[in-house]
Write a structure and sequence with these properties.
Helix content: 40-55%
Order of helices and strands: HHEEHHEEEHHEEEHEEEHHHEHHEEHEE
Number of strands: 16
Shape: elongated
Length: 575
């Protein structure tokens, strides 16, 4: 039988157990809070150590997923226009899932809600929000959501997006507080990484400018200096392709003299119109021109295809002012890479301006050398005229007078022959004087300019503008007599296309390696009829044969016709 004291003993023991359990729960909660604070501090330290911007963004999104125990996390970087995402870094989604879903989001739906209203956003179900945009096929299921903005110097840089808290729970106020704290630290880390990246970029920029200036001022070849400009621009601005285009004298076109990087061969030697190319727009406007997607930009001609796999691009004039633009440098990144920021464009513009100054100094140096050479030639010509010719003339007059006093006919004849020889020598010297004082040809008289003009004259009858590509020292290696034949054959070929081919596209390619010149004209027309007139082709073949070359006409499998006119170049150039 229980003692009457037992109930009074058992009741305090139960209360004590409850108090102990509550105390243990508080201790566990405090320990959990302490561990979470420690994790947050570790995450802040980890993020703050990164100086590479891309790696810093990756560390931020990984730390965010761990801190709030989310299955999926993403960091969206807001583009320059402030309305859509320009980059998207994810955690939790596999490569196969990314390939199935397709391109990264641009900022519609819930993601856009944070762009429009940069305040923390937390919800139990994404689909319940009015701004919910839905998911594309193959997208992993996502319900709970937590998003916070990341600010860098009071400007919203991007947003952190967390979904699917593990265990089916919802994100709570503590998760939001922890993530907001991480976002503040992330903003500082991003700012530090950008400052470090800017300093490294400026350092490389200054080093490249010094290298280019030294190359130009040391008398390096123009092609070598332009190649250095393109290569350094590609490296500094993290681009896949860099192009340098220069204006062609006597024409309204630009020619791509240098191309380095991805598919450089597709650009090298191209002749581009001013109004249908990014470099042309930058040249005529004397200002930078940017494109978010150079492959699908409606301002740029699609023929010939040359931007496959590329996306963001910027073209910057080399020099300033309409009369001071010396050329254009274009850089392009792979598709999917970040667009060029205003700061990057301004720095590239400064780089091009420095290159223009170096080019101008080099040209002034060459001009001074040329003036010195011309003055020296003029002095030689003057001395020849005033001294050598006068003395020879006087000697000839003396001999001619002395010849009358010579009695023997043989001796008199020899003296007269000597006088004739002196006259011939005077003529040779006068011809030499004329050569020393003769000026170079007028602007636009080179073969490159003549080819561009011939193509331009054919546009009205063709109904379209043919593509033009030229490679090699066309103006230097091809002598005038061969250049005349090249222009005549080109004109005949384009006329034949206009009259008979019914083509919608044509391509002209002129190349030389110093030993031969090759002109190729292809079209997308109906080809050459077997019973058609051959007078034009016969004339072209005769021109080639007369120069020791050959003409070949083929019909590719895709249709149309290809004409290849190839002749050797003389080993010794006149003059």
């Amino acid at each position: 039988m229980a003692s009457p004291e037992e109930p009074r003993v058992r009741l305090p023991r139960l209360k004590l157990d409850e108090l102990l359990e509550e105390l243990q729960a508080r201790i566990d909660a405090a320990r959990g809070t302490q561990e979470r604070v420690r994790s947050l501090l570790d995450a802040i330290l980890s993020v703050g150590r990164e100086l590479d911007l891309e790696q810093a963004l990756r560390s931020i999104v990984e730390a965010a997923a761990v801190l709030v125990d989310a299955e999926y996390a993403a960091l969206g970087v807001i583009g320059p226009d402030g309305t859509r995402l320009s980059a998207f870094h994810t955690v939790g989604v596999t490569e196969d899932e990314i390939a199935t879903v397709g391109p990264y989001p641009e900022g519609h739906g819930i993601l856009g809600e944070l762009i429009r209203h940069p305040q923390p956003l937390r919800m139990a179900r994404i689909s319940g929000h009015p701004a919910s945009y839905g998911f594309p096929p193959g997208h992993p299921p996502m319900n709970s959501f937590l998003g916070v903005p990341i600010r860098v110097r009071d400007q919203v840089f991007g947003n952190l997006y967390l979904t699917e808290k593990r265990g089916g729970a919802e994100f709570d106020e503590e998760d939001e507080s922890v993530l907001s704290t991480l976002a503040v630290a992330a903003g500082v880390a991003i700012d530090n990484a950008r400052l470090y990246e800017d300093s490294r970029l400026r350092e490389r920029w200054l080093r490249a400018n010094a290298e280019i200036t030294h190359s130009l001022m040391s008398g390096s070849e123009r092609a070598e200096s332009l190649g250095l400009i393109a290569e350094r621009a590609r490296e500094i601005w993290g681009s896949a392709l860099a192009v340098v285009a220069m204006p062609m004298e006597g024409t309204k076109s630009l020619t791509v003299e240098i191309a380095v990087g991805v598919d450089a061969e597709a650009h090298r030697g191209l002749v581009l119109p001013m109004h249908e190319s990014l470099v042309g727009l930058a040249y005529t406007g004397a200002a930078p021109v940017t494109s978010d997607d150079v492959l699908h930009d409606p301002r740029i001609s699609t023929q010939p295809p040359r931007f496959l796999g590329l996306g963001p691009a910027v073209a910057v004039p080399i020099g300033t002012g309409a009369s001071g633009v010396r050329g254009v440098v274009l850089v392009a990144r792979e598709a999917g890479r970040p667009v060029f920021l205003r700061k990057e464009t301004e720095m590239l513009q400064g780089f091009a301006a420095q290159a223009a100054i170096a080019m101008e100094l080099a040209e002034r140096r060459q001009d001074a050398q040329q003036i010195a050479l011309l003055e020296d030639r003029d002095r030689i010509a003057r001395d020849l005229h005033d001294l050598a010719i006068q003395r020879l003339f006087a000697t000839g007059m003396t001999l001619q007078s002395a010849g009358r006093l010579i009695e023997r006919p043989e001796a008199a004849e020899r003296v007269l022959r000597a006088v004739d020889d002196l006259d011939e020598t005077i003529k040779i010297i006068r011809s030499t004087i004329f050569g020393l004082r003769a000026r170079t040809g007028t602007a636009g008289s080179g073969l490159r300019a003549r080819v561009v003009r011939a193509v331009g004259e054919a546009v009205p009858v063709l109904g379209f503008t043919p593509g033009v590509r030229m490679e090699g020292l066309v103006d230097t290696d091809v002598p005038p007599e061969v250049a005349d034949h090249v222009v005549a054959v080109l004109t005949e070929a384009l006329t034949n296309i206009a009259r008979h081919a019914r083509a919608g596209r044509a391509q002209v390619t002129l190349t030389t390696d110093g030993t031969e010149v090759c002109l190729t004209v292809s079209d997308s027309g109906v080809g050459i009829a077997p019973d058609g007139r051959r007078s034009g082709l016969r004339n072209m073949a005769e021109r080639a044969a007369g120069l020791g070359g050959r003409l070949a006409v083929t019909s590719p499998a895709g249709g149309g016709a290809t004409l290849e006119w190839r002749v050797p170049l003389p080993r010794e150039r006149p003059g």
